[in-house]
Amino acid sequence: MKLAVRLTFAAGLLLAAGTALAATDTPAGTWKTIDDTTHQPKSIVQITEHNGEYQAKIVQLLNRTPEDVARDGEHPVCAKCDGERKNQPIVGMTFMWGVSKDGDEWSGGRILDPKNGKVYKVKLKLVDGGRKLDVHGYIGFALLGRSQVWERQD
C-alpha cells in the first residue's frame, strides 16, 4: 500500500514538473515589460497563441508619473498611431501580432510602439529557462533595432 502511494506521489510530481516546463517553452503568458532605457517596469502584457500565431495585448500600465498622467491623461490613447489604432486606448490594445515559431525563436510579426505610433518587425527569444523574453524590434535588418527583456509573471 505504501509503495502505491509513493508511486502515485512520484507520478504526480513528474506530471507537475512536466506541466511547469511546458509553460516556459513558449512566449504565451503574462509578462512584465521592462523599459530598455530606464530599466523600470512599464506594463503588464498578455501574449496569446491562436493557430500557431502569437499576439500581445497591453493589460496594465505601470509606474506612470504625475507628468505622464498630466500629459497623456488617466487612460492614455495611441494619439500617434495610424489606422484602426488611432486614438484608441493603449490598455487593451493588441500591439504585437503575426508572430510565429521559427526554430528556437519567434518572428515574422510586427510590434507597435504606442509612444511614437511606429510599427516594427519583431523577434522573440526565450532566455533564462523561459523566465525572460528577449523582444527585439527592428526596421530592415535584425542587427539594427532595440531590445527589451520582459519578465514572466505567471
Helix content: 10-25%
**Largest sheet descriptor:** 8 strands, antiparallel, barrel
Order of helices and strands: HEEEHEEEEE
* Total count of domains: 1
Order of strands, main sheet, comes to: 1-2-3-4-5-6-7-8
| Proportion of strand residues | 35-45%
Rough shape?
Answer: globular
Give the terminus-to-terminus CA distance: 37 Å
Domain DUF2147: 29-152
Pfam family, one: DUF2147
Organism: Rhodanobacter denitrificans
Protein name: DUF2147 domain-containing protein
How would you describe this structure to a colleague?
The protein has 154 residues and is of the alpha+beta class. The protein has one domain (29-152): Beta Barrel (Lipocalin), CATH 2.40.128.520. Helices cover 19% and strands 44% of the residues. The protein contains two helices and eight strands; from the N terminus they run αβββαβββββ. An eight-stranded antiparallel β-barrel has the order 1-2-3-4-5-6-7-8. It is globular and about 45 Å long.
Helix and strand layout, with pairings?
Layout: H1 2-23, E1 29-34, E2 41-50, E3 53-61, H2 66-72, E4 94-102, E5 105-113, E6 118-127, E7 132-138, E8 146-152
Antiparallel strand pairs: 1-2, 1-8, 2-3, 3-4, 4-5, 5-6, 6-7, 7-8
Question: Can you summarize this structure?
Answer:
The chain has helices at 2-23, 66-72, and strands spanning 29-34, 41-50, 53-61, 94-102, 105-113, 118-127, 132-138, 146-152.
What would the keywords be for this entry?
154 residues, alpha+beta, Lipocalin, 8 strands
